[in-house]
Specification:
Alpha/beta knot, 2 domains, seven-stranded parallel β-sheet, 60s Ribosomal Protein L30, Chain: A, 10 strands, homodimer, elongated, alpha/beta
Chain lengths: 249, 249
Amino acid sequence: MEGAQAVREAFAYAANSVHELFVTEQTASRHADLLQQAEAAGTRVSTVTPRAAEMLSETKTPQGLVAVCDTVDVPIAEALSGRPRLVVVLFEVSDPGNAGTVVRVADAAGADAVVFAGDAVDPHNGKCVRASTGSLFHLPVARARDAAEVFDACRSAGLRVVAADGAAEHKLDDVAVEEALTGPTAWVFGNEAHGLPAELTRAADTAVAVPIHGAAESLNLATAAAVCLYATARIQRITCRDDEPRRTS
Amino acid sequence: MEGAQAVREAFAYAANSVHELFVTEQTASRHADLLQQAEAAGTRVSTVTPRAAEMLSETKTPQGLVAVCDTVDVPIAEALSGRPRLVVVLFEVSDPGNAGTVVRVADAAGADAVVFAGDAVDPHNGKCVRASTGSLFHLPVARARDAAEVFDACRSAGLRVVAADGAAEHKLDDVAVEEALTGPTAWVFGNEAHGLPAELTRAADTAVAVPIHGAAESLNLATAAAVCLYATARIQRITCRDDEPRRTS
């Protein structure tokens, strides 16, 4: 794991999972709080040269701070336990920066879990971890190859499976769609270039498009996810009944 | 300008502004439609080697297609003419990819104009053009160094100036905020790392935060803009009165 913000979140949310910290002298002096956290957690700290930090880094602009951590993904049944109301499924998303940004948005919107489905990027990819700015530690993340299995697991958990599809007839702000989003919802987003395959859109309970009011052809993955997830969070929070308390894990 | 999608939009929306097209043989065979458009527009087409296309490119993954075009920005008074209802001001946004993505989102949400204010990235930066996927041609884009001047121009155009500020007391889904967003609105977004300076937030008519429902610290610029602009578009479209027709430029 790279970068001060991500490592800070790892210490805050899963201190026991951080095994070793490699840091340059310059970075150590800038982030004394992190070294204190490492000491408190009993994590080994090794000072390295800028050149070594660069070699350890997967990014073009290394921050001089790399941590060795346990992986964070959990079985899908665990990720979807506890009456989830808002879940994100990323199907064959291939760009790690996009994937990490969507995890961050899902966290911000109060989602209960993110599932990486199909031939998707590894959530532990360095760029994904960095783009998530710590959110990978804030909500359960699961991986599953088979999308049909993921849909089944979502339905078993009481979630309605909604495919995000720019070509869908139903738009996000249709009254009927807003009504449907009041219930527990799993949003499924496809690959950034190809979207969702038609058979997966058909396998979902419904398909919904973000309306395009101007002349743009589409939105990119992260901004489309932001609009869908925040719209759902708003609707669910307005209509949340007292007998359906939100999950507080 | 680089990339097939951006050049296609340039021909569609401003064919006279495209002066010359440089294209590799391989790319030309893949995008015969573009060469036809160039011929129809009387644009000179020059076949170049992949190496030359790479030298002309500002990006890491050149598509073998570069066009020489006029700049697109217009004076701010022109950008804000015609009773705008939704405008985006980007203050000192420095990453061209972020800026281009926000122009694309503004277009998709039906915004009437985008203003690059302060020491912001050049909207004609190659990465910005590419990230906008043609949206730079869909709505007027203006540049202005002085933010106070931009705020004045927005108010003269009948717009309420709303600063996007993660620390603001008022949240996007507060009833009073939703009520206020029914009127013509200029959203102001700050630099991706530093946000808006305090004096600019104070100079706005109000400041509004995207609510964070989970444990994330914040959203990134493009996703925050997507949420704010789509929320405003939804509210304005629900409440749009017949005596206030939308601009149809």
